[in-house]
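Known limitations

Files may contain more than one protein. Parsers should not assume a single record per file. Below, a two-record file is shown to illustrate correct handling: read the sequence, read the token line, then continue until end of file.
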Amino acid sequence: MDIFRLIQDIRRHLKFSFDEVDGWFDKDNGTLNFQPSNGGWTVQQILEHIYLTNFYLLILIEKGSKKAMRNYLNLDLNLEIQCYSFNKEKFEKVGEYGAFDWIRPEHMEPKGELNLSEIRNLISRQYHECLNYLDLMKNGEGLLCKTTMTVNELVKINVYEYIYFLSLHTQRHVTQMKNNELENIKN
């Protein structure tokens, strides 16, 4: 496995995902506050949910990166890189809106406590935080720590995969926001 290519691919995916999300902050109030007929979230609520989910995922990513860097002292990184195989297919469903049931914890549900400007700033910081972790673990160290991920039966994933998961989750909700916008246009 070319770990450097994986890191670059994740970096590109993050940029694409976060750039797409950022564009939604410039939408008109009608689009941002449109309530879809299925009773789902408005675009503004979805943006807040993205921030909240990233917040909690980044706590796990931070812990994982610290542990991975500590493990670097005791584990054979070259062996881990040689044995690693990234199963992209098992992750792809995470980025597809409606691909499977997703029961999110209550603390990741939007409460309307932040304004759009605050959410935009926080999401921008989260993007840079992800890039900093990729820079910190630039030689493959992110393989040296695995953490449980119960969503879509991913089981144990390494720190890079957690960052990719975060980016895929963002993509999932970009699709949801596009669906809202299309329904709003039709009405």
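...continuing to the second record:
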Amino acid sequence: MRKAFIRNIAEVEWKEFPAHHGGALSKPLVAADNSDARLIDHRISCYQPMAYVERHAHKVQEQVYHVLEGEGLMEIAGEKRVVRRHDVIFIPPGIEHAISNTGLVDLVFLVITTPMTDE
């Protein structure tokens, strides 16, 4: 039987995942390694000024980014656009993308990914 839970964000440690640089930190709030989740990965990320994730694409994963604070530069399929509070970004599988904090304060955003079968 799968297990439900309530977890406070403060219970989860910040991590700098591979290909993330300069203070591009994330808290994996719901992930395969800390829950019974099979079809979703939910993180909150906090990128310090000049932090970024390298350009990459996922084979089968869909992703949603939801910017909560700050501003940065989102690159999707070679096109760059400023993103800021309340912007929601959808990335289908196979599309190269990257995000960086080009602002003056921390860039804070949610990342929701499904399924978690490739990386």
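Parsers that stop after the first record will miss the second one. For reference, the second record is described as follows. The longest strand covers residues 62-69.
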